[in-house]
Amino acid sequence: MTMKQCRQLISLLLAFLLLFGGAVLSEEEEEEIEFLPDDEVFLEDTTDYGDVPWNFPVDLQDMDPAMIRLANKYVLLGKDYKPDPIMTMVRRKANKDGSNANGGVNKASTSEMKLQKECGEALVAMFEGALQDGITLYLKSAYRSYQTQNTMYYNRLKNNHGKDDGWVSKPGASDHQTGLGCDIVSKAWRSKAMNAQFAKTKEAEWMKEHAQEYGFILRYPKDKEDLTEINFEPWHYRYVGIPAANYIMNEGICLEEFHEQLQTAIDQFLEDGGNPKLVEPYIQRSAE
After folding, report:
1. What is the reported pLDDT for 156?
2. Residue 22: its pLDDT value, please?
3. Which of 92, 110, 247, 272 is the most exposed place for a label (fewest CB within 10 A)?
């Protein structure tokens, strides 16, 4: 029996009780009947795949297509792409007991920084979790628009004799444009030029061990430069949601590999006769 059929059966049973149960129940007994909202009938819902198996470690219901969205030189975001909803990250203020008074984060500069709302809230939680372990993190860079990335990219080319050295993504290919990419540093690195030495800090080590608990992954790992085509960035973390983050970090893969595996699962699902509407939102297409 499918989840939908189960819901329908329960609805019929509840309707039967309402119609016929009143004749045999006392007023006191009727008051004790608790009717759960439709989305609370089951403790855990599952996607109805019919008779077609879903051969991927992460269930579709545990992945938001917008959160796992890929952005690189092969899968470009459009010029008008902007995360929605988006929130402005405010500077953290502490209560007398040290707790977060305003839902903010430590910031490496006074400049305005924005993130997709779910990502921003998860980042606040991660920063608070780090503080409990004696680690203070600072947000150095967040959402960047296509236009801002375009300016940064061509300034980099101009200052590097026209060579793309892998440090600044071309416009449309930046993880920052998703609103889910964050550059996170320690207090000592707030104004430093970023390089791989940051990986040796206690802050970088803490993030690599705990970020997945909050839905973040190390976006550009050291041993995946041939796949990401971006230099190792131990400060750049990307929000994908907890289920996907746990799988990616536990398996030691990058987001490109995750999508390659996901696409293989989608192809198999469709070949086996699966419903195309279920997987369509998860198929990545480049804006160009």
Report:
1. 80
2. 45
3. 110
Please give the pLDDT value at position 32.
46
Q: Say how many CA atoms lie within 13 Å of 159 toward its Cβ.
A: 8
Question: pLDDT value at position 240?
Answer: 98
Same domain, 122 and 16: no
Q: Are 259 and 267 a contacting pair, CB within 8 Å?
A: no
Catalytic residue (choose from 32, 233, 256, 257): 233
Question: What's the pLDDT score for residue 161?
Answer: 75
Question: In terms of domains, do 19 and 160 share one?
Answer: no
Q: Is the dihedral of CA 18, 23, 27, 30 positive or negative?
A: negative
* Cis-peptide, bond into residue 85, ω within 30° of zero: yes
User: Is residue 50 one of the residues assigned to a domain?
Assistant: no
The whole-angstrom separation of Cα 131 and Cα 62 is 28
* 233 labelled catalytic: yes
pTM: 0.82
